[in-house]
Amino acid sequence: MKANLNKSTEGTFIQSVEASIIWEHMNRGASLTPKYDGFIPYSLELIKLRELGINEFADRKDDKVDIQELDRRTMKTIRKFHTDDIINVKFKSKVSNAKTVLKKVEDSQARTLESFANEHGEKTDFEERLAVLNEKFDTRNEEISQLIEANKDAWETTLSLQELRNELYVNGFTLTNYKGEEVKYVVYKRSSAKSRVGSCLFIREDIAKEITKWSRMGINFENGEEIDIASLSAYESLVTSSLKSTIKINPKHILLIDDVDSVFNMSAIEIVKDTVDGRVKLKSQVNENATISNSLFDGSGLLDSQYFDGQGMMLLRQHFFKSCVFNTNVVNFMRDQFGSEYETATIKDMLGNKVKVKDIHMIITPSSLKVFKFSKFVGTDKDMYNHWKKTIKAEKNTFGVCKSESSTKLGYDEKGMPLQQMSYQMVNSLDLDINGIQDLSKFEVDYINTIKNNDEAFAQHLLDTATMTNSNEMLASLFYHNNDIAKTELFNTFKRKTINKYVAHMKQGKIRITGDYAVLIGNPIEFLFSAIGKFDVNDKATHHMKGNQIYNKNFKNGEEVVCFRNPHTSANNLLYAINTKNTLIDKYFNFTNNIVAVNAIEFPVQDILSGCDYDSDTMLITNNKTIVEVARNNDAKVCLNGVSATSNRYVLDSLNRAKVDKTIASGLIGMIVNVGQAAQSVMYDAKFNGYTALYNEMKEVVEIISVLSTIAIDGAKKAYDIDTEKELVRLSLLVKSRMKQDAGGKNLFPNFMNNGKNHKRKYTSYKTSMDYVVDIFDVRNRETAEELATKIKRAKELKSSDVINVFELIMPFDIETGEIFHVRNANNRQENEIISMVDTYTDKMKHYKTSLLKANSEEKEIIAKKIVLSGNIIKSSMKKRAIKTTTIFSIMYHLFESNTVEDNQIQIMNAVYQSEPKRFLSVFEQK
């Protein structure tokens, strides 16, 4: 029976190609080798694409085979699906002319030759090797020259990134697919992840019209009217989100109610535009009566418990629909409220439609249903709502489930409290001295010092951090089988590298504290009562939460806690809260420990948490005493965006889409964070040294940065009355001018910002929390009693006289059969296959890990997917092999006795362990 991909929950890999390479391939004859580095996840859209019959294939024995040609049994063995029908196009490099290209090639070859000479200059065969390299360069140069000669006009052309984007968006491009067929591609859409890095999906022209029509619910937006293209692009892409599963919700069970805003006044810092000497910049100013508006239920929904399977929330997707729905006893609530009239009662939704109370299973607001901005294209809001419901029914009432809440994977303390790690932004926002950071770091310092000097503790660490892609479980199991493995160079080298990596993690601020991340929901009881008209935001008698109250089941009633939400910029984003038990929440909501209810009525929770909403935003909640004390005494006011803005609206065509997508991909967020952290470090250092003027100057920069990040994110949807890039440059130059300097006048950056990538920078210690962290986790000799108690120490070294060879632990015979092991009786072919397979896998992992260092967020997700797939493939391949104990003995012999196999020793051992754990351990003496 033929395979049916319509039922598959696997995603498909696609080509990811630089736009300039596509242009050069089409216009200059440059080669283009397909690389399937992009990925389309299992989603509502992929389900539809498969219904439309996109062509997918698999690599089978160096050949590409159509999935449709495979039977079901064979398809189950396929680990990766591919398609050429969709291509991800990146816009990172412009098109250069011949002169510029030749100069770049010349410079690149010169650097390569210099590096080659430094590395191989002393070798006897250097001249021969150099000749081979020069021959390669000559061949490449000749190829380029021939290309230039054959396409002179094309090689005189230069295209900027925007010109290149315009060209491809308007005209599309043609490439050859895996079947050798020429395919025309046209601009399609971009996901939110792709928009942040400027990438865009292009699709086969002959299916573009139908899938675009489906994505837009059959609505024609290209009628010459101006619309918010950025919003349309974001909303039509909601169906591309990766899914864990799907559920059925009939629209007749949905109650649509109005959003509710809490508007109030309080003292706050406003970031506003200022003009000085004709130059526009931002400044911060205190407004004692600033107006704040919170949307109480923004992005959330309430769904009856019958749809859940133990989760506290589900993030749902459908056409123009994005809602984080929470596990709620909606039916029970309605029964309690309507009593004997439950079966017959009706209430009106926000559009005046009557809804039977007994039918209500889900309650949402327009903040979840994004269609009403475009109602004019079908008529009224009521017309649009009816159109949407009909569309959902045509999709068999299917909603995609993207994710649910998750709990910590970093362990628990002795009291059973979860442990979660901080970030360097969180740590550096805390106004702490060295003593405070020592208190904050004590758990990790004690942990590292313990695993350094206690092999039992280190073995437990290996088990706690074991994954399918590392060798931790194997080495820990071997230790518990025979702890003399700890006397080997193999074990101690692995231990040293593992702990060094952990320490480097700490220097990035990844300190564990008690607490965990929880998904936010705003005023849930008020949400329920609002559905039946019994909540008035201006009537305190109908309020069930107040002030800085939150409710999370991890913490005691009345307990002080501190909350961080990413992006976290400064002390202005510290939320000090009181955990307050709520009996109505317990009655009508089925929250897990990773759900938190917050109050947004007359309290600036959303602005404190960097503009949070409730569409699955999370925050880290902790009761750490050191952090609580800082937050309790924190006098940093909430920062508000006072910069005026208008919506960006354009006629929907390819050229305007190119313009909007360029705006979205400005890539400023990382730079904004870096400037903010540098400013914060200078600020705290100035405070420590009593430099009041410098402190206040940097404090203003930090406040501006906290709002500038929001402006940058919203830049595509709104036209702000400020040039974000120019303002960021101004702030960056200001901060650098206030940094410490060396004797030569060169800027000295804070130590914690030294990630080893920028070798031109110099660094020094600042009186700021993260630099204290770097000092505490620096590995060096500790002398004073305080240092020995508060900082990490060097590990005790194993005496050379105590070191043993791994092979000394190997049994000379099979413990079950008594058969003497002989290398000649091993399966040599199988042994060589295993070693070769592991070598290939290890090289691939090294390549992936190197790629991760320079990858953006979307690329990191794809690489992570490939790492998991590669791990599954080698594990599956090893599981198929029945490895005899004699062969395992032979492998150990060649690894540690004859030393004929020197590379990837631990990886080879792990591969055998994953295949035959009991047999692997049985060849070692048990102790």
Helix and strand topology:
Layout lengths: L11 E7 H10 L9 E3 L3 H9 L3 E5 L2 E4 L5 H4 L6 E9 L7 H23 L5 H25 L1 H4 L5 H11 L1 E4 L5 E8 L2 H6 L2 E5 H11 L10 E2 L1 H8 L8 E4 L5 E3 L4 E16 L2 E17 L4 E5 L8 E6 L2 E8 L1 H9 L7 E3 L5 E3 L5 E3 L16 H14 L3 E6 L15 E3 L2 H5 L5 H20 L1 H10 L7 H10 L7 H18 L5 E11 L1 H8 L17 E3 L8 E5 L10 E5 L3 H6 L6 E4 L6 H4 L9 E5 L2 H8 L6 E3 L3 E3 L2 E2 L2 H11 L4 H21 L2 H22 L4 E3 L3 H14 L2 E2 L5 E4 L11 E3 L4 H8 L8 H6 L37 H26 L3 H23 L5 H12 L8 H11 L1 H6 L5
Parallel strand pairs: 1-5, 11-19, 12-28, 14-16, 22-26, 23-25, 33-34
Antiparallel strand pairs: 1-2, 3-4, 3-5, 5-8, 6-7, 7-8, 9-30, 10-20, 12-13, 14-19, 15-16, 15-20, 17-18, 21-22, 22-27, 23-26, 24-25, 24-27, 29-31, 32-33
Description:
With 927 residues, the protein is of the alpha+beta class. Strands 1, 2, 3, 4, 5, 6, 7 and 8 form an 8-stranded mixed beta sheet that branches. α14 packs across α15 and α28 (828-853) runs antiparallel to α29. The longest helix has 26 residues, at 828-853. It starts with 11 loop residues before the first strand and ends in a 5-residue tail after the last helix.
